[in-house]
Amino acid sequence: MENKTQTWVREFILLGLSSDWKMQVFLFVLVLTMYLVTLVGNILILLLIRLDSRLHNPMYFFLSVLSFVDLCYSNSIAPQMLAHLLSARKSIPFYSCVLQLYISLALGGSEFFLLGAMAYDRYVAVCHPLHYTVIMHGQLCLGLAAGCLVVGFANSLMETIITFWLPLCHNVINHFACETLAVLRLACVDISFNKVMVAISGFLVIMLPCFLVLFSYVRIVAAILNIRSAQGRSKAFGTCASHLTVVCMCFGATIFTYLGPQSASSEEEEKTVALFYALVAPMLNPMIYSLRNKEVMAALQKVLEKF
């Protein structure tokens, strides 16, 4: 086995997305625009759900939690990206890197389970409409949301510990943020165990909610096909279309990055997918849920009329 010298790391150097100054300025403007749209969109969703009593139901409760998670996730990545895009030296202290990895993993995992809980909510709404309010009562919704966060943060704690427990040979991370696969590449020792743990973690955090979503939508589609009127089928499908769009977007990007073959994607492709998930998805989520939702648009119109 090749001998490598272990390095005591006090800070990490992030290579970012580009070393070209003009490209970094362009990326700064692009990232700033996306970040501001993300902030405005998700804060607006939270305010509309809080102010309009017509949106006080389980579906919009989960949507508000999802918007809050997206806000926190973007804030854990975007401000540092913006600062580094205008900096010659892109450094991050060791413990800040640990915290960033932990928070981003925790929020990302929590979001997957939230999407699974939202799929269950849609299943109950379509397949058991007469018992919807009885089944999806307040305590169950709070319990599901809390459980999603607890599982996400617990899984992230385990993965963060085994990632930074490794001895590191250098401190240059080929990424724009502290990310599991990028940090693992710095290790001086064999990382087979870590790869196995990342695979197990990915299965639990990604595939289990994905299976729940698939099971829910199989039942939903079967129930919709049994509806006789075309208008009824269209209305039932409309209540699920936004959620299904977000599910395909979020699960698809992450499965490609973490569960695909090692040779299928380069480090640059991994950064591109990570950028999509960190900035594009949180920006698009409120747009998808608002533009296709008459109740949200009505709530927005009502608020605008007041002001």
TrEMBL record:
Annotated Gene3D superfamilies: Rhodopsin 7-helix transmembrane proteins (1.20.1070.10)
UniProt keyword annotations, A-Z: Cell membrane, G-protein coupled receptor, Membrane, Olfaction, Receptor, Sensory transduction, Transducer, Transmembrane, Transmembrane helix
Annotated TM spans: 25-48, 60-78, 98-120, 132-154, 199-225, 237-260, 272-291
Keyword set includes Protease: no
All residue ranges annotated as the G-protein coupled receptors family 1 profile domain in the record: 41-289
Membrane topology: Multi-pass membrane protein
InterPro entries: GPCR_Rhodpsn, GPCR_Rhodpsn_7TM, Olfact_rcpt
Entry coiled-coil feature ranges: none
Pfam family, one: 7tm_4
Compartment(s): Cell membrane
Family from the record: Belongs to the G-protein coupled receptor 1 family.
Function text: Putative odorant or sperm cell receptor.
Protein name: Olfactory receptor
Species name: Felis catus (Cat)
Gene coding for it: OR4N5
